[in-house]
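Task card 7
Instruction: Convert sequence to structure tokens.
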Amino acid sequence: MAMALISRSKQSARQLLSTLLGTTLLLLLLPITPAAAASVRDQQWYLDAMRAEEMWKVSKGAGVTVAVLDAGVDPNVPELRGQVLPGTNVISRDRPAHSDDIGHGTTIAGVIAGTGAGNGLRGLAPEAKILPVTVVEKSDEPRFFEGLDSVAEAIDYAVDNGAKIINCSFGSSYDQPSTQKAIDRANRKGVLIFAGAGNFGKEQRRGKSGHQYPARLPGVVAVGATDKQAKHMELSSYGPHIALTGPGDVTPQRCDGTQRICIQQGGTSVATAVVSASAALIWSKHPDWTANQVLRVMIKTAGRPEADKDLPRSHLIGFGGVRPRMVLLEGEGDPGDPDTNPLFAKRYAERSASASPVSPTPSASPSAESPAPAEDTAAPDSSTGATVTVAAGVGVLVLVGAAVATVIVRGRRRRAG
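Output:
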């Protein structure tokens, strides 16, 4: 009887969580076990898989600033000391961008540019700089994208303050017109924007929408997540907009605010950070390349299963998993036309030449606007994972069971119309 009650309690909690997922922007952190007893670096398995140590002999991301649009970044954790620029908080002017009550933004910054000091996270681009821009905040008062333009404002701030790459490890089920305009401005100024596709793959297979913004918007490189076998993670959202993937399986992350490191599922949040760091490595090695050229070589050198290498982009993994080593160590990837966007040439060709970041000539590279094969929408046979999607607003729900602690921060806005 006791076990049955526990089972029903867990089921109810999961049903409640599923309901909230469909209507709010939220943050889910799912700690599994503390990581302090072992070397954190040893548990960052993807660094070895990507041959990070070899790549660091060629590039560590120096000279590249990555804006982390997230829940703030704590610059006082050992691995981020000296790595974090001043930044700003676009939703709460009385709080600095160097405040992170959740730990998510600090994790993303560490995955990108952590030095590994103090047994902390080792970033894939450990000499890149982090520009924190707070768009998400846990609070007792509604602070959910106040003014309705905070994402656009955050993108504009990042561009105006020297970011070459903007990392968006968050998502929302609704969109606002101002965001697209800011994305277009960033593209015109040669800034790359990477955004997590979301962790709603299971919901999509049940017929629900898994669309997440800003990843769905033109001008944004949508990132999916793969497991340790480089296969699509079951939780990773999918669709024709997916461009690249990164490792999102179990990794060390900051939890309980920023005080501890736990082993957690990363999902598309961590995957996006790895993709952003990969771009930083390449751009640092080739500072004369444009954003279009950096993105093009990332697409051309992405890893896909041998049987799929000649097929159009996949709904599940896009053009494949990022492999910066192919550029840095093997010299592969033709950067091509500096003025033609490899994903969004058609969109920008239709716009005024004076307002376009690309030439009107369509790219010879596979286009994001080409439909993906229909069979890729079938549910894959891959490992499962836990969701990490950033959110903001008010309220905290804690589910305790099977060593799982979940923080959900609910927003007050709803989809327009």
